[in-house]
Amino acid sequence: MTKQQFTKIVGIQLLLLCTLLTLSFLGIILFDLFSKGYSALSWDFLSTAPSKGMTQGGILPAVAGTALVTLVATLFALPFGVACAIYLNEYARDHWFTRLLRASIRNLAGVPSIIYGLFGLALFVEALHIGASILASGLTLALLTLPYIITTTEEALHNVPNAYREAALALGATKWESIKTVVLPGAMPGILTGTILALSRAAGETAPILFTGVAFYTRYLPGSLLDEFMALPYHLYILSTQHQSLEQVRPLAYATAVVLLGMVLLLNLSAIMLRIRYRNLWKTSK
Amino acid sequence: MMNRRTFWDRFYHRLFAFAAGLCVLVLLGIFGMLLLNGFRFFESVSLWSFLGSSNWNPSAWGKATYGMGAMLWSTLLVSLGAMVLAVPLGIGTAAYLSEVAPGWVRDWIKPAIELLAAVPSVVVGFIGIVVIAPIISRIFGLSNGLNALNGSILLAVMALPTIISVAEEAIRSVPNTYKEGAYALGANSWTTLMTVTLPACTSGLIAATMLGMGRVIGETMTVLMATGNANAMPHGFFDPVRTITATVAIEMGEVPYGTTHFYGLYALGAVLFIITLIINLLAESIAAKFRKQGR
Questions:
Q1: Helix (H, G, I), strand (E, B), or coil: what is residue B170?
Q2: pLDDT tens digits along A186-197
Q3: Chain B 26-65, CB below 8 Å of chain A: which residues?
Q4: B135 touches chain A (CB under 8 A)
Q5: Contacts with A191 (C-beta within 8 Å, 6 or more apart), sequence order
Q6: pLDDT of B288 strictly over 70
Q7: DSSP of A47-103, one letter per residue?
Q8: What stretches of chain B adopt beta strand conformation (E)?
């Protein structure tokens, strides 16, 4: 074997090693959490409130809070994001406003999540007097997920072949009618995928809700959108760093991490499945 | 007279344009809000002492000090450490995915990397506490493994998906003719990768690195949980550090609205925003070039 062949083999193995190392991080996270958190999981854990200074009981208020705040975020971000994407893909020509819009969206995606928290605090909590609440947190998370929804929706719209639009227009439909009846239904799987990903992102975020409504502990489930709430990621943060007896609540922290991660991964897996299922949507119909 | 269908057609056109305009307003709003609140801070504290001093002690009785030097350095230390770990690993993985792996392997690995990207930062921070910290304290004989190194390792994991996907795109954008030229000269796949393909997409790899950096520099929960949060100038990777993001997260909950301290945290946010904005703008302009070249 020549020296060149030898370095080639070693080199390729090195690349494989890099890939395996990267994957091993995911493996370690999944294995450690599920192997240690599994035992503390039970129906009671999911369906009761924390008790005895959060050393016992479950995480029901946190699950409910996260579900609600994520729902509020999606309700605001989805119509707004889809409208933006429709404008970009269906109406906008290449001029300064479109370029500014695209640059804004790209940069919004790169803004650190804690900055969204600061913005939410200044705008929703203080300036608009909503107060620290589910609504304020939901709106903050909506802004955070907006760039994701816009990007994925625009891609979904872009994948709808132009022939469909032209066919609708040729039948006498106005532009809006062609969008409503032909383009949007065709882009629906892609929009759904993006929405699911945005949901999972919103559910896992902590920094944006820190100052806009999340609470250390609430005795009751939230009764209105103006209540403070508990959230799974923040609860995990509290249990793993802020609690007065960290070692005692470690099993609860593990179980909380499993619920949070399980939820997020399920959402992501379903998005991946959806994408695979509809990957050839337009290829086969041509 | 306009009929109903034309009316709705125009109505929706305007509505969508309005939504798009709001979107631009959000970014401008974030920027304006940070600047406005930051300016209020600089009414009582000089910009020079804010950037130049490293003594951050807003609650000192009588003479509060607001120097962000230690935090800025902590943030850079942790992020640079993360890049040192993540860049070779990420580019190696990207090269494997685009040049070596057969299609079906890639079809399995790419979703796995997507899942890695989806792990919430608070979960990554938790892993830092329960897995990485004990390992660090055992290997290096430290009393506690919550330090800059721990943060760097975790942030490297969080930067990997970004680096891999951008680097893979960059490597793919290298025209096949380049590689075929190298093969025709008798180079094997490894030599081609190292001497032709990777050098041909250096700018893309730099963009990947910068976008990864932009991703980790603003990360909050992970560093808040895993780096020990010592408010002091760090001397190395084994010191506990407190980053800009962690400081904002810790202190914002405690300060009264409208105080100098409150605005100081917004000024920190403004610095962070400007750093990430510059990184992202540079990375995007580089990435835009190789995307064009790839076509």
A1: helix
A2: 999 999 999 999
A3: 26-30, 33-34, 37
A4: no
A5: A82, A152, A153, A156, A184
A6: yes
A7: HS-EETTTTEE--HHHHHHHHHHHHHHHHHHHHHHHHHHHIIIII--SSHHHHHHHH
A8: 56-57, 65-66
Q: Is the Cα torsion angle B237, B239, B244, B250 positive or negative in sign?
A: positive
Contact flag B277-A108 (C-beta cutoff 8 Å): no
Determine the angle formed by the axes of helices B148-172 and A3-37, rounding to 10 degrees.
130
Fold entry, domain B65-294: MetI-like fold (1.10.3720)
Interface of A with B in 139-168 (CB under 8 A): 143, 146, 150
Which residues lie closer than 8 Å to A274 by C-beta, 6 or more apart? A189, A192, A193, A196
As a whole-number percent, the residues of chain A with pLDDT over 70 amount to 98
Query: What is the rounded distance in angstroms from the CA atom of residue A18 to the CA atom of residue A20?
Result: 6
Of B125, B52, B68, B63, nearest to B247 (Cα)? B68
Q: Is the pLDDT of residue B127 over 60?
A: yes
* Residues A43-284, CATH architecture: Orthogonal Bundle (1.10)
Q: How many CB pairs under 8 A join A and B?
A: 264
* Structure tokens that stand for B160 in this block: 């990997």
The answer to whether residues B179 and B196 touch, using CB atoms and an 8 Å cutoff, is yes
- Residue ranges per structural domain of chain B: 65-294
